[in-house]
Design brief:
Elements (H helix, E strand, L loop, with lengths): L6 H11 L4 H25 L7 H20 L4 H21 L15 H20 L4 H12 L4 H25 L5 H20 L5 H27 L4 H29 L12 H13 L1
Length: about 290
């Protein structure tokens, strides 16, 4: 994926829908992360996009951090983990919704030597700690670091991200597995789903890739909203923190769902670029607003 935010959907599904223990869900999720990173890395390699030697440097720096992060994650209690995941989901969602600036750096000279290499190594060490602990949304952090500090173009950034995530996730999975915190059967089905997704991605023409990304992005947002709503309906928890988290998750999820499908419609030519207006629209908007408030 471009941003690597799939764990923001899979972790809530594993915990809330399947009722899986939080630590086991975190460990099981690593199987899908490793497979996805491997496929992405293979794809970039076949297209001649090289990450050597910086991918190795940054990957092993992150690996050291991941050992620390995963060692902490296997011993964390479930309530603390869910609160931390909720905070990450809200933070990443707000970044996606409100960040309108481009992070592309195609026209800038890369800075991967000297002090800038040290900054990247240090940054990837802390990224590895977070990646070993949770990993959700880590791609966004990697992209911000490499494109702003090191001025790496977007394609190389994603290639380095895929390689480094693959390296440190192997270490994290090993720690979870040694502690018996991996559900291999569920992990198998997650990897199988990733294989199906990769199959469709390979067969989609490059000119149609934005449409496919829009659809998958929208489905991910919709899944997040459904998971949040299901949690509220199943538990009836009215605690301020829980309710606020659910409300924000539903808002961001439904916004992502509708916005992504509108983007798909425009890219495919189904929806015109001009705003859609009709007689009585303001009145209808008022009725809908009153219905929601009531």
């Amino acid at each position: 994926t471009l941003a690597g935010g799939g764990s923001l959907v899979t972790l809530p599904v594993l915990i809330l829908f399947l009722g899986m223990d939080e630590v086991i869900a975190n460990g099981t999720n690593r199987l899908m992360i490793i497979f996805s990173a491997f496929v992405a890395n293979y794809g970039y390699t076949t297209k001649g996009i090289k990450t050597y030697p910086y991918g190795i440097f940054l990957g092993f720096s992150a690996l050291i951090g991941a050992i620390i992060g995963a060692s902490i994650a296997v011993d964390i209690d479930g309530d603390t983990f869910k609160r931390f995941l909720a905070i990450i989901m809200i933070s990443i969602g707000l970044i996606i919704v409100f960040n309108t600036k481009s992070i592309s750096s195609n026209e800038l000279v890369e800075r991967l030597n000297g002090k800038y290499l040290f900054y990247a190594l240090l940054g990837f060490f802390f990224i590895g700690i977070y990646g070993g602990f949770l990993n959700a949304g880590v791609g966004i952090v990697i992209m911000l670091l490499l494109t702003t500090v090191n001025r790496v173009n977007l394609i190389r950034t994603n290639a380095i991200k895929a390689f480094s995530v693959f390296i440190y996730s192997l270490a994290a999975l090993l720690i979870f597995a040694l502690e018996g915190k991996v559900d291999w059967i569920v992990g198998f089905w997650m990897v199988l789903g990733s294989i199906i997704g990769a199959f469709f991605a390979i067969r989609v023409e490059m000119t149609q890739m934005p449409q496919m990304v829009a659809i998958f992005n929208g489905l991910g947002g919709g899944a997040s909203a459904l998971v949040a709503a299901a949690e509220f309906l199943s538990t009836g928890n009215t605690a301020t923190f829980t309710v606020s988290t659910i409300v924000i998750s539903v808002f961001i999820g439904t916004l992502t769902l509708s916005g992504s499908f509108i983007a798909f419609g425009k890219l495919q030519g189904f929806i015109r670029g001009k705003p859609i207006v009709f007689s009585g629209q303001q009145l209808l908007n008022g009725v809908i607003a009153l219905t929601v408030v009531g």
